[in-house]
Amino acid sequence: MSEHNERVGFVGLGIMGAGMAGNLLRKGFDVVVYNRTAARTEPLVADGAEAAGTPREVAQRCDVVFICVSDTPDVEHVLFGEDGIAAGIRDGALVVDSSTVSPASTREWAGRLAEQGVGFLDAPVSGGSEGAAKGTLSIMVGGDDADVERARPYLEAMGSTITHVGVVGAGQTCKLVNQILVVTSMLGVSEALVLAKAGGLDLEKTITAVEGGAAGSWMLANRGPQVIRDDWRPGFTIDLQQKDLRLVLEAADELGVPALATSTIFHLYRTLQRDGLGGEGNHALIKALERLAGVQARQVDGDGRAS
């Protein structure tokens, strides 16, 4: 048991949430979990978590409640729907939303919970499923100083970089900045690997040659090898990436700023979704460029097979 004596709840055990909740358990926290598909709670319960039947029950049993679900309407439902968190939360509790959702909706939710005496942080994360599993996520946090410090022990159990970026809603805006950088980086990786393949280069040696210099990036180092191995397992799916890019484009429209590359990538991903590839990792962006070029950027063995 951790010396930190608050019980922590976790609602949403998907590709990111399961790893995050697992790290809370490994750090010794007393954790109550809920997921709409109850079977996803079973591995965590086996590791010592308690399962709850509804988000409301999580809130009734916990002092701090984390949320990590897919989209803005999902957070709204988890918070304020029938048997939602707001129906069971008590005065003085804290809600931390680690989903990637609308900054405007985030500010609205914080105001509604404040009327109940409940604190709220938006704390979206970056680092993919690998970072969630290893506890090395980058977490960008919006909210009051005191609430951030209260949540810090939990955040540090799940992430290696915790940055308080501003007031409520600022975390979500910062995450949208992150997503612009992620997808435009992957577009660059995609164009580069297609060119390398068309030019007859060994793709593994090419990545090794450039990743340690100015061209290096997280996406190149982590997703480039997956691409050339024909490995499309998601650290983050195309469908979820598209949801985030929609939020980026909405925010850009509201703020009156150009998002030229993001818009292009959104439409490239749309072609892949249309072909049923929405469940693949976001690095499958390269498939849209491969179709345009008539080139597949895969490393092959001596028999001509993908290695």
Tell me which CATH architecture of the largest domain applies here.
3-Layer(aba) Sandwich
**Can you list the strand order of the major beta sheet?**
3-2-1-4-5-6
Class by alpha and beta content: alpha/beta
Estimate the helix proportion, in percent: 40-55%
Beta strands, count: 9
Shape: globular
CATH topology of the largest domain: Rossmann fold
Radius of gyration: 20 Å
Q: What is the overall number of helices? A: 14
CATH superfamily grouping of the largest domain: NAD(P)-binding Rossmann-like Domain
Terminal CA distance reads: 45 Å
Keywords:
6PGD_dom2, 9 strands, 307 residues, HIBADH-like_NADP-bd, six-stranded parallel sheet, 12% strand, N-(1-d-carboxylethyl)-l-norvaline Dehydrogenase, domain 2, NAD binding, 2 domains
Please render the helix and strand layout as text.
Layout: E1 8-11, H1 17-26, E2 31-34, H2 42-46, E3 50-51, H3 55-61, E4 64-67, H4 72-80, H5 85-88, E5 94-97, H6 103-114, E6 119-122, E7 125-126, H7 128-134, E8 137-142, H8 145-158, E9 159-166, H9 170-198, H10 203-211, H11 218-228, H12 238-255, H13 260-274, H14 285-293
Parallel strand pairs: 1-2, 1-4, 2-3, 4-5, 5-6, 8-9
Antiparallel strand pairs: 7-8
Helix pairs in contact: 1-7, 9-11, 9-12, 9-14, 10-11, 12-13, 13-14
TL;DR?
By secondary structure, this protein is of the alpha/beta class. It has 14 helices and nine strands. It has a six-stranded parallel beta sheet with strand order 3-2-1-4-5-6, with helices on both faces. The chain has a three-stranded mixed beta sheet with strand order 7-8-9.
